[in-house]
Amino acid sequence: MTQTRQNIAGLGILFVLIGVFCISINDLLIKQLSGGYPLHQIVFARSALGILVTLIIVQFEGGWGILRTRHPWAHALRGLLIVIANMTFFLALAVLPLADATALFFAAPLFITLLSIPILGEKVGPLRLTAVAVGFAGVIIMQRPWADASTLEVSRLVLMLPVLSALTYALNQLMTRKLGVESKASAMAVYIQGTFIIVSLLFFAVAGDGRFADGATNGSVVFLLRAWVWPADSDLWVFIGLGVNSAVIGYCLSQAYRLADAATIAPFEYIGLPLAVVWGFVVFGDLPVIEVWIGIALILGAGLFVFLRERQKARTAHRRPIRGRNG
């Protein structure tokens, strides 16, 4: 039984690594498109293409019947949470360097570890809780609360958007762990893609002509509300790539959190931090300021400690299956 569980955890880790790599590509492509297209148009195109790919995967996982669920409202709530997580992050991404936005978003694994206690009933001991606190200290440093608002490159509201994204993303993944007991990963990905399509079409109906963006000077607001336009020929392949990538992300993350404990999977999402630094420098020529480097170091250190402590706890439980200490 223990060996089977370890094999499932290892597969979950593989899926989350693939998913996080694809997320880094997704963020890079969306930042590239953010100067010329509205967010809701990008989300619609990405999800419309993504759901077609995901429906093909559905056929391999059991056919149309797996789309039936006994918990439609719970899946709807999960979909709304991931929509909020994505849109708040992308709004920040339009005006923040890629590494800065990603580093702030990486409060998500900290939230996952912390919230897995009341929501999933998982045991997280004092040592791991201390590591979570250190990670949140890194988030606070990146917020630079001591700085005058006029000296910041963006508003404090924009700096908080990735943190809100992190919280809603964490809640989404914890719901994935619960709902994944009865639902296939591809079906759960279809529900999310469908929610993205519905929300983006609602945005189009209300603001698709760009009238609410007139006179706006905030880059995030313009990105959210500018008018839809037909993509340039050179951008069509970017939109197609986003759609395929979206399907891979939705499937891999749903599968990862179905197969393993949230506290085990979450630390592996930290691979997204160095990837964001690399892409930000290679593509946009951006490097983090000192506060962001410090925050990254604290978050990475906290995440690695949580992971190593989880592994130590698992080995202890394997040697002493009746009683073990949690830390």
Describe the structure.
75% of the residues lie in helices and 0% in strands. The protein has helices spanning 2-33, 39-61, 72-93, 98-105, 108-120, 126-143, 156-179, 185-207, 219-225, 233-259, 262-265, 272-284, 290-319. The longest helix has 32 residues, at 2-33. The protein has one domain. The two termini are 23 Å apart. The chain is an all-alpha fold and 327 residues long. It is globular, with a radius of gyration of 20 Å.
Q: Quick recap of the structure?
A:
The protein is mostly helical. It has helices at about 1-35, 40-60, 70-95, 100-105, 110-120, 125-145, 155-180, 185-205, 220-225, 235-260, 260-265, 270-285, 290-320. It has one domain (about 1-320).
Counted up, domains total 1
How many strands appear in the DSSP assignment? 0
Summed up, the helix count is 13
How helix-rich are the residues, as a percent range? Answer: over 70%
Query: How would you sum up the major sheet?
Result: none
Radius of gyration: 20 Å
Lay out the secondary structure.
Layout: H1 2-33, H2 39-61, H3 72-93, H4 98-105, H5 108-120, H6 126-143, H7 156-179, H8 185-207, H9 219-225, H10 233-259, H11 262-265, H12 272-284, H13 290-319
Note the main attributes of this structure.
327 residues, mainly alpha, disordered C terminus
